[in-house]
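Sample intake sheet
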Amino acid sequence: MELGHAYSVLVVSASAKFNESVRSLLPERFYWPVTVLTDAAGARRELLENNYDLVVINTPLPDEFGTRLAQDICQHSAAGVLLLVKAEHFPDIDGRLTPQGVLVLSKPMSTQLFTQSLRLLCGTRERLRGLEKKNATIEEKMEEIRLVNRAKWLLIGELNMTEQEAHRYIEKQAMDRCVTKRAIAEQILSTYK
């Protein structure tokens, strides 16, 4: 298996036997750190403090079944979620949770199916990571545009420049000083506030 880096994993399961066997399927060079918790409440507390790439939930849990936890994780994080349910529950739960981004597997399952599912979640996590980077870049650019526009309006109001003159002034200052337009806009905003 060729993975680019180690993926952090949260395992939520009340079964000591499952927890022991799943650890052997998560080699440290691919999956690290691996945190094991036995109930949904503990998992929720952990997820408030730490982000995980993958979350494996072995149902049922002692304080809830586990479907609500899986839904909450998908809704509030970018972690890949694998939910393991008994065969009799699979059709209903799979139909409800798969559209929400939860990968549902029926128990019992083979080791190969489990490891393939984890690899699938790793691939999905990488795609999400790429989208998160693009989104962050777009948000940074939008924030820069907002700052530059605020600075232009200050120049227009304080120095009676036209919008074109204010825009050209900011661009020229950025080029002359070898800094970003954002840095010039922040300087203008601090000067005239």
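Comment: Residues 182 and 193 are 16 Å apart (CA to CA). The beta strands are 7-13, 31-37, 54-58, 80-86, 102-107.
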